[in-house]
């Protein structure tokens, strides 16, 4: 660890002490990316260990639309045991303006969420609303709007390709992409994909099951 990184150790300590037990701070030396973690405070939050590499630097920081002025603030990820972590990352530069490190702040939101839920339970609840035809119609219109967007996405993913000439693996790959993006969570999308790919709904379901099985094995 060089002197520039060492200057951030008191910063890491004071952040962790200010925000408490559920706040983890991780200091990275990006001149050794394969083992970039050089210092941690409260590392029980995510289990980060000195000698490990970075995880979210590319996807949640450098490629984030919120990345500005050498930092990305308030992005979220889940730990392996399902806890939601609120995170912010600041890049560290040397006097030559080269990025040589990063300071990451990870806050376990579990206690915060539990407290919010408990406080919400103390508030008066809204009484059951009587049936309202106008409200129901608005809900229907909203669902139709979401389906329209989903169908448009499906059309763009499949494009103008002659589906009769597509190989099975090409169709499976399209379905895989849609599954990863959550498109099939929207009602009616299975029918749309079956129609566009000129296959049955049963075949679409079989593709999805095949994809999930491979993901589980992988």
From TrEMBL:
Residues 153-208 form the Transcriptional regulator DauR-like HTH domain. Residues 6-114 form the YheO-like domain. InterPro entries: DauR-like (IPR039446), DauR-like_HTH (IPR039445), YheO (IPR013559). Signal peptide: none annotated. PANTHER family: TRANSCRIPTIONAL REGULATOR DAUR. This is Transcriptional regulator. It comes from Bacillus timonensis. The lineage of its organism: Bacteria, Bacillati, Bacillota, Bacilli, Bacillales.
């Amino acid at each position: 660890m060089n002197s520039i990184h060492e200057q951030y150790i008191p910063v890491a300590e004071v952040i962790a002490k200010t925000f408490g037990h559920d706040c983890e701070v991780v200091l990275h030396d990006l001149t050794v990316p394969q083992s970039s973690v050089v210092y941690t405070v409260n590392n029980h939050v995510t289990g980060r260990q000195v000698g490990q590499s970075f995880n979210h630097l590319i996807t949640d920081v450098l490629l984030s639309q919120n990345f500005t002025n050498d930092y990305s603030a308030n992005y979220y990820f889940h730990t392996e045991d399902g806890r939601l972590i609120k995170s912010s990352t600041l890049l560290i530069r040397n006097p030559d303006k080269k990025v040589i490190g990063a300071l990451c702040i990870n806050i376990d939101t579990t206690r915060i969420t539990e407290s919010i839920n408990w406080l919400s339970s103390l508030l008066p609840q809204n009484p059951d609303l009587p049936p309202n035809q106008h409200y129901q119609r608005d809900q229907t219109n909203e669902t139709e709007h979401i389906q329209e967007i989903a169908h448009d996405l499906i059309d763009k993913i499949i494009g103008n390709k002659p589906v009769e000439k597509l190989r099975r693996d090409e169709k499976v790959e399209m379905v895989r992409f849609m599954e990863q993006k959550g498109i099939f969570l929207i009602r009616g999308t299975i029918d749309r994909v079956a129609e566009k790919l000129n296959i049955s709904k049963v075949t679409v379901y079989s593709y999805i099951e095949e994809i999930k099985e491979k993901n589980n094995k992988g």
